[in-house]
Design brief:
By secondary structure, the protein is mainly β. It has a single domain, classed as Urease, subunit C, domain 1. About 5% of the residues lie in helices and about 45% in strands. It contains one helix and seven strands. Strands 1, 2, 3, 4, 5, 6 and 7 form a seven-stranded mixed beta sheet that branches. A hairpin with an 8-residue loop joins strand 1 and strand 2. It is globular.
Length: about 90
Amino acid sequence: MKTAEGQMVIHNGSLIDGNGSAAVPDAVVLINEGRISYAGPVAGAPPPAAAGVRLDARGGTIMPPRQMVEGEGVRGLYGMRDGAWD
């Protein structure tokens, strides 16, 4: 399976990591070459690549699909706002 290339940054949302813990406010997810390299508070994040794709969650929820939680590889991340998928 070919994975994504480059870096994607998803920011400005609350992260639900799928492990049952509380949502992380003001979170960021960094995806490098199709794999999550960081997911957590923006304050602890490494600096993103300048040329990467940036997605603003607009204060909504950042939640990985089941495949990511089970370690089957990145197939995408989705932002949810007001109970509806963007």
